[in-house]
Amino acid sequence: MARRFVGEQLPKADSERRENALLVTSELVTNAYRHGSGTIELRVKPSDGHLLIDVLDQGNPADVAMRPGTGELGGWGLRIVDELSTEWGVQGRHTHVWAKLPLS
């Protein structure tokens, strides 16, 4: 559902940029679902040639910056977000994770 919502915001994006945005969306929403709490809110906003993807939940922002250990299968999502986005970050009293991706 989140991927479809973001995909609808990108009718003119080339396939690589579209797939990158969908993957980043999946990673951020999955992190909020697995590690956050309360309602998850997804916001998407095209701005200045970029797409801003915001995911908010009621969890603790300190839980976001997890680093996987050697040989671990999970915990790699934010490394994917870091590789695909021009910027990303965590802010707020509750968890607010955002990523900025180029549209062109």
Number of helices: 3
Major beta-sheet overview: 4 strands, antiparallel
Radius of gyration: 13 Å
Give the DSSP E fraction (strand runs of 2 or more residues).
25-35%
What fraction, in percent, of the residue positions are helical? Answer: 25-40%
Structural class: alpha+beta
Spans of at least 5 consecutive residues whose pLDDT stays below 50 are none
Shape: globular
Strand arrangement, major sheet: 1-2-4-3
Count of DSSP E strands? 4
Mean pLDDT figure = 86
What does this structure look like?
The protein is of the alpha+beta class and 104 residues long. It is built from three helices and four strands, in the order ααββαββ. It has helices at residues 2-8, 15-35, 77-84, and strands at 41-47, 50-56, 87-91, 96-102. It has a four-stranded antiparallel β-sheet with strand order 1-2-4-3, covered by helices on one side. Strand 1 (41-47) and strand 2 (50-56) form a beta hairpin. The two termini are 24 Å apart. The model has no long low-confidence stretch (mean pLDDT 86).
Which features characterize this protein?
alpha+beta; 3 helices; 25% strand; 104 residues; four-stranded antiparallel sheet; globular
Concise structural overview:
This protein has 104 residues and is α+β, with helices and mostly antiparallel strands.
Blueprint (SSEs and pairs):
Layout: H1 2-8, H2 15-35, E1 41-47, E2 50-56, H3 77-84, E3 87-91, E4 96-102
Antiparallel strand pairs: 1-2, 2-4, 3-4
